[in-house]
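Co-fold these.
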Amino acid sequence: MDTFVIQGGRRLAGRTRVNGSKNAALPLLAAALLTDEPVTLRDVPDLADIKNMHRLLAELGCHRVNEQAGPSGVQTFQVADSSNCHARYEVVRTMRASVCVLGPLLAKRGSARVSMPGGCAIGDRPVDIHLRGLTALGAQFTLTSGDIIATTPRGGLKGATIFLGGPNGSTVLGTANVMSAACLAKGTTVIESAACEPEIVDLARLLMSMGAKISGAGSPRVTIEGVDRLHEADHRVIADRIEAGTFLMAAAITNGDITIENCPMDALLSLNDRLAAIGVDVQTLPGKAGAEVDPMRATVRVTCGRVLKPVEVTTQPHPGFPTDLQAQLMALLCLADGNSVITERIFPERFLHVAELSRMGAKLFRQGPTVIVSGVRNLVGAPVMASDLRASACLVMAGLAAEGTTIINRVYHLDRGYERMEDRLRMLGASIERVDDKDLPGASGGGE
Ligand code: EPZ
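Predicted complex below.
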């Protein structure tokens, strides 16, 4: 099993580029199910989760039609056979986001069988709000042997006014499912308490380029006028705000100085607010030859003072501080000069990285959804275990800053959301190698 070996203490310096967003690309790929015409996506990241989605689409009769041509990031998909509507457990259990095919299948094919996603390392992942929204459009659901069996009435889905709020805010993929399905419903749909994440705005942009009539995406109220059909489109995926935030904080934790291209700073204002309070400086560089800077694809330079200041942060739905950057911020605050407070409001159990950071000398005190981070002078390298995508990134950051050697087991978690992370960090001066854990000295089968 792949493992990272990191020699800490090196400052990151140099230039890197943010890839297209995993969390935008997954529902964008699912939208190819909404038409019989080809859908082209550009800047699709080369990630395990994306490969999983390709496999799922192929099982649903939607195939990549430009396999050979062009760079890997340009992907054209087209439905060739719409007879199979079953997203199997074997696929969904490895990637919960597979649930985002439910809305498109229902809207275009009138039926779907999607395995109920199980829980995962960051906590329960219910889909009750997805089903509430799709039921309001007329879908009927039964649960059989762990699969959601969905059908639509003879006349198809009908527009409705829907409230999509839940105890922890709205639902990103639930909004994607309902918005996608509403595009082909008869009449008008109003989604109240829609997710406002940039990935929802990006999906709405693709759907509108396919002929959908959507207004309000990015705000809590989205209105969709149903149309009879959607057509081909060619769309560039937004930059990955979570990958960008991870690199910003990786530079800061090593007291580095890096320049990041294709950085969606306009989607990172909450992070930038906290970084400024910590003493991390993020400068947007002027456009080439005075060209206008696209705040969603800016080039920024990140540096920081020698002393990191402690802060308080609570994760919230967008535009609040993203839960997907909580673990990475915790790693950074482990080295702040004082006590920080981190509260997790989206996934209250999203703290598997706490025990691993403690193994590296971090002083962390959890009370329910809150962790007090008492800053220490330095972290010490140790063997640690990755548990989920963003916790893995947090441990990589801690390893970059720690004294000595950090060994991160199960980096397959990281590969789900970060493309060739070790190569890109090495280009920035890090000492990081990917090795097979069997080749490590004293290797023995790791227990569960
Ligand atoms: C998306 O997951 C992201 N994944 C997650 O990123 C991200 O953490 C999450 O949004 C929150 O921002 C993708 O986009 C592929 P939710 P999603 O439905 O849509 C509760 C990563 O690391 N809820 O917005 O599945 C839920 O339990 C991943 O890249 C219900 O109660 O998350 C949670 O507390 C991890 N009922 C909250 O809402 C529902 O029907 C937000 O979940 C749905 C969700």
